[in-house]
Amino acid sequence: MRLSWVCLLFWSNLSYVAGLSRVVPRRPKLLPVRAAVHHHLYNQPQATKPMFSKTEFIAQVPLILLYWAVFGPLNALIKTLFRRNSEQEWLSSSAVYSDIKGADCIVTGSNTGIGFETALELAMRGGSVVLACRSQQKGEEAAKRVNALCNAKGGKGQAKWMELDLSKLTSVLAFCNEYRQQVGSLDIIVNNAGVNTKGTTSDGLNESFQINYLGHYLLTRKLLPLLCGISSSSDSKDSQSTEYLKISRVINLSSVMHHTGGVDFAACAYGSGNTSSYDDSKLYMNLLTMELNSRYGYSTTTAGIENQHTRRILAVSVNPGEKCFFHNHHIN
């Protein structure tokens, strides 16, 4: 059944693209950048005119709109049906509702939006969740809402607020020290908080890059001993949770915009590059994910982290704009 949906989806996309290629024929002229490349490689004359003139394009607009009107809704309908079928399979899977009773979790930026829903889901499954937020009022209100919903719906976990301002590196360090003193163990961290601004932090760094990436990097780096180590609090967790938590989780929120991010670290940190600081931060979140898996994902070696007991780390980058119920796909 699924294969038939995929074939139908492929056919609709192919028809759509093929139709557009017939509607707007490409002329043998090149855009400026491609023209320069062809001139350099093949010694061909440069053609800087567009592929088709404005008059030709306007003449084809009715046909383009007709193709969009026919194949656009059909394509959207097939994708919706296919996605709904996929979600139903995940929802019917017992692994989606795995019990993580006793798991210690951190979710940044969890007073609202995706962060709040993630914290609620973890608490419903039995996790002890720390809402790491900047605002005390909003954080405490969100924690009360999570606890109230857990009590009303039979959830096994709980939530509390702890102050974390990712725009101040001193606040990140203070949070790590307070967390180690109050909790002392960590099984799941969701680096969710993010902004898309162009300001400068008190540390003199680009605001988007520091909040989205640098703050989360420092947070994860300082808590690595807890992620790699199995603390004494694991003794209070049941056998199912203990088996589940043999591997700690680091969930980094990325974005499809990472494709246009830059790799010049200095330019990204100070916002002096030609690329978007938001895009830069999401690219670096993916690089952090890859490096965590490379160093701690395949063995229990601590790589210089002093801890008697060690465990592997599973790091995952997720794009919430692409996946519904992204935590159902990746927390497990």
Q: Overall pLDDT, averaged? A: 76
Characterize the largest beta sheet: strand count, sense, and whether it forms a barrel. Answer: 6 strands, parallel
| Percentage of residues in DSSP E strands | 5-15%
Number of domains: 2
Structural class: alpha/beta
Please tally the helical runs, counting DSSP H or I stretches of 4 or more residues: 12
Q: Largest sheet, order of strands side by side?
A: 3-2-1-4-5-6
Measured distance between first and last alpha carbons: 26 Å
Shape: globular
Q: Over all CA atoms, what is the radius of gyration?
A: 25 Å
Q: Can you tell me the CATH class of the largest domain?
A: Alpha Beta
Query: What is the N-to-C succession of helices and strands?
Result: HHHEHEHEHEHHHEHHEH
The share of residues in helices is 40-55%
Determine the CATH topology of the largest domain.
Rossmann fold
Summarize the structure.
With 332 residues, this protein is an alpha/beta fold.
Properties at a glance:
332 residues; alpha/beta; Rossmann fold; 2 domains; 12 helices; 6 strands; 11% strand; globular; disordered N terminus; disordered C terminus
Mind explaining what this structure looks like?
The chain has 332 residues and is an alpha/beta fold. It is 52% helix and 11% strand. It contains 12 helices and 6 strands. A 6-stranded parallel beta sheet has the order 3-2-1-4-5-6, with helices on both faces. Helix 4 runs parallel beside helix 5 and helix 6 (169-182) packs parallel to helix 7. The longest helix is centred in the first third of the chain and has 39 residues, at 54-92.
